[in-house]
């Protein structure tokens, strides 16, 4: 690939069009030259890797906005690109992603290459309502009088939100979207970070958080009786809510208080351990609206498949995450979820890691006697030796995956002209769970992002829809899109449709979910080859963090996973051990354990002397 992060990546609008075209092409890549096979010795065998990513299926994109001529429109500020993908998208916009990098480089993506605003540390006026959040370790942060702790550092606000009337949204054309394409950072996978989740803890512990900025999700929404409503979450929200009666407020606070320490009151739920959480809620003397809010917007669990204990655990997790950074349990990384893999790449680069783009691998080389993998052969015909190999599931060929049964995720991405729930503030980050129409079908998670998240242009919203697949993504998600949005491009529409946000552009696709596959399901993989999955369908990132730590501990059982980096004063600089910067790969399988290179922005490298026991 020519971008970071695999299926966790984020794209500019033109980059996404290129990605769409690439995944709509069904042709396989043929290996024209097999000179690399001469490198395989007599006591070795190969495991060929897949030449084409088959994790994305059923890609369909639609333009609902004014389709003025966009053929000759270019992204503002676009630089000349290497012809990697060619022409892209249904509208024939031949632009490349603004995030392309040279073929072989350090793992450190340059912050300045994304957007002028990002490089200078300022944001456009339209993006500045609402606070941005920098996550820090709790012992470094000042204590809040209200919450007893605070790890919140707020950005500066520079301008008021746009004063465009909610009833008359600004008209956005397709050519405007293309022209402002670099304002978009569109995630392939839609997730939020729980403020007390494993990923936040890991970002703080490893100090990777210094490479990213975050924004609070500002509201939790519910879809009930055909309308979108805001769900009160915190104590203040509950008592300020106009939707709930005083009796309902007391009921809700009493139940949420119970959920926070439900383990201390087993007599209240033990009789319902074999029941669903929905059935348990009906016994708690809660009104139908409260049951709906708790089930779909707080616990965010299935009505039919979730047990009472699972529902109580999910509710407790939600409540424990409230107040750490804001009024909801969730954070969203500015510039998209695809920033997170790049942040880890930056930290990796500081200590000598190398990330190669547009650098394909032909095969794994396995020693017949030991059964262990010795090396890989890349498309240059170069052998690269190592002790351990980590392979993302999509690279494995069908012959290795004959016994593997995959799940699928249905995804949709929309660009709209209004929020699903207009308020005084335009700059809202919202999460909405739409319950299934038919029992047994999955609920749909909707995340709506405003322009201050740096994922879309001014006067638009980026909407992500996700659910476990039952059919194609369009069949799964279009009924929900039709409930929430206006897809009608004709001028004559009824008043109910006019009140809905208008979809300007949309894409649907199915993504493979390999998160539940056991390593033993893969045929013939050596013991020192580890498989990591692509994204799962859950809202949080716990699955990926657990998987990464498990793989690391299997390889290095005595080492700490993602340890804090050394403080500058602990680094000993020795001129005799300064390592000159090199390009490309070293064919040697051995590295010096006593030092690693630190890459600076100037390109200089210094040796970091490690402790003797390392």
What's the structural blueprint in terms of helices and strands?
Elements: E1 10-11, H1 13-24, E2 44-48, E3 56-63, E4 104-106, H2 116-120, E5 132-133, H3 174-179, E6 186-187, E7 193-194, H4 198-206, E8 214-216, E9 219-224, E10 227-230, H5 235-240, H6 246-260, H7 277-282, H8 288-298, H9 308-321, E11 330-333, H10 339-350, E12 354-356, E13 361-367, E14 373-378, E15 383-385, E16 389-392, E17 407-416, E18 430-434, E19 444-449, E20 461-468, H11 473-484, H12 495-499, E21 503-513, E22 529-532, H13 542-555, E23 595-599, E24 605-609
Parallel strand pairs: 9-18, 16-22
Antiparallel strand pairs: 1-6, 2-13, 3-21, 4-12, 5-8, 7-11, 8-11, 9-10, 13-14, 14-15, 17-20, 17-21, 18-19, 19-20, 23-24
In short:
With 614 residues, this protein is α+β, with helices and mostly antiparallel strands. It has helices at residues 13-24, 116-120, 174-179, 198-206, 235-240, 246-260, 277-282, 288-298, 308-321, 339-350, 473-484, 495-499, 542-555; strands at residues 10-11, 44-48, 56-63, 104-106, 132-133, 186-187, 193-194, 214-216, 219-224, 227-230, 330-333, 354-356, 361-367, 373-378, 383-385, 389-392, 407-416, 430-434, 444-449, 461-468, 503-513, 529-532, 595-599, 605-609.
Description:
With 614 residues, the chain is an alpha+beta fold. The protein is 21% helix and 19% strand. The chain has helices spanning 13-24, 116-120, 174-179, 198-206, 235-240, 246-260, 277-282, 288-298, 308-321, 339-350, 473-484, 495-499, 542-555; strands at 10-11, 44-48, 56-63, 104-106, 132-133, 186-187, 193-194, 214-216, 219-224, 227-230, 330-333, 354-356, 361-367, 373-378, 383-385, 389-392, 407-416, 430-434, 444-449, 461-468, 503-513, 529-532, 595-599, 605-609. It has an 8-stranded mixed sheet with strand order 3-21-17-20-19-18-9-10, sandwiched between helices. Strand 13 and strand 14 (373-378) form a beta hairpin. It comes from Haliaeetus albicilla.
């Amino acid at each position: 690939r020519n971008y970071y992060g695999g299926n966790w990546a984020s794209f500019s609008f033109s980059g996404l069009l290129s990605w769409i075209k690439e995944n709509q092409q069904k042709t396989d890549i043929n290996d024209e030259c097999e000179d690399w096979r001469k490198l395989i010795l007599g006591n070795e065998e190969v495991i060929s890797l897949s030449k084409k990513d088959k994790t994305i299926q059923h890609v369909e994109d639609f333009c609902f906005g004014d389709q003025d001529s966009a053929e000759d429109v270019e992204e503002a500020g676009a630089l000349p690109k290497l012809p990697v993908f060619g022409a892209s998208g249904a509208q024939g916009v031949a632009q490349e992603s603004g995030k392309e990098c040279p073929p072989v480089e350090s793992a450190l993506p340059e912050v300045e290459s994304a957007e002028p605003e990002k490089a200078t540390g300022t944001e456009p006026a339209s993006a500045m309502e609402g606070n941005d959040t920098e996550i820090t370790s709790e012992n470094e942060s000042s204590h809040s009088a209200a919450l007893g702790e605070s790890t919140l550092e707020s950005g500066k606000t520079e301008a008021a939100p746009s004063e465009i009337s909610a009833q008359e949204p600004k008209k956005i054309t397709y050519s405007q979207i293309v022209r402002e394409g670099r304002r978009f950072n569109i995630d392939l996978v839609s997730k939020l970070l729980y403020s007390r989740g494993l990923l936040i803890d890991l970002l703080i512990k490893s100090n990777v958080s210094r490479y990213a900025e975050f924004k609070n999700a500002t509201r939790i929404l519910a879809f009930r009786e055909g309308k979108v409503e805001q769900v009160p979450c915190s104590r203040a929200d509950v008592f300020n809510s106009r939707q709930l009666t005083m009796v309902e407020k007391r009921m809700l606070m009493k139940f949420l208080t119970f959920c926070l320490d439900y383990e201390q009151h087993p007599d209240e739920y033990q009789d319902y351990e074999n029941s669903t959480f929905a059935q348990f809620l009906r016994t708690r003397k809660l009104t139908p609206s409260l049951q709906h809010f708790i089930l779909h917007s707080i616990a965010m669990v299935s009505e039919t498949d979730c047990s009472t204990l699972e529902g109580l655990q999910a509710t407790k997790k939600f409540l424990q995450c409230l107040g750490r950074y804001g009024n909801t349990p969730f954070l969203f990384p500015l510039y998209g979820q695809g920033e997170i893999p790049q942040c880890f790449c930056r930290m990796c680069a500081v200590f000598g890691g190398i990330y190669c783009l547009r650098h394909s691998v032909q095969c794994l080389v396995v020693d017949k006697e030991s059964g262990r993998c010795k090396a890989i052969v890349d498309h240059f015909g170069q052998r690269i030796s190592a002790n351990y190999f980590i392979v993302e599931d999509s690279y494995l060929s069908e012959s290795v995956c004959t016994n593997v049964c995959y799940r699928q995720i249905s995804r949709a991405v929309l660009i709209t002209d209004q929020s699903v729930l207009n308020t005084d503030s335009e700059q809202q980050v919202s999460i909405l769970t739409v319950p299934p129409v038919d029992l047994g079908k999955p609920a749909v998670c909707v995340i709506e992002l405003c322009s201050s998240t740096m994922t879309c242009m001014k006067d638009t919203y980026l909407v992500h829809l996700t659910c476990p697949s039952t059919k194609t993504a369009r069949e799964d998600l279009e009924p929900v899109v039709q409930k929430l949005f206006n897809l009608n491009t004709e001028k004559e529409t009824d008043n109910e449709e006019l009140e809905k946000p208008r979809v300007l552009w949309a894409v649907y696709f199915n993504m493979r979910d390999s998160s539940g596959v056991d390593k033993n399901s893969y045929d013939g993989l050596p013991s020192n080859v580890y498989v990591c999955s692509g994204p799962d369908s859950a809202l949080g990132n716990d699955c990926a963090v657990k998987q990464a730590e498990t793989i690391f501990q299997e390889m290095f059982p005595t080492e700490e996973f993602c340890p804090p980096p050394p403080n500058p004063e602990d680094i000993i600089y020795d001129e005799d051990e300064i390592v000159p910067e090199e390009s490309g790969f070293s064919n040697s399988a051995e590295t010096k354990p006593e030092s690693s290179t630190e890459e600076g922005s100037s390109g200089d490298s210094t040796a970091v002397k490690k402790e003797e026991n390392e």
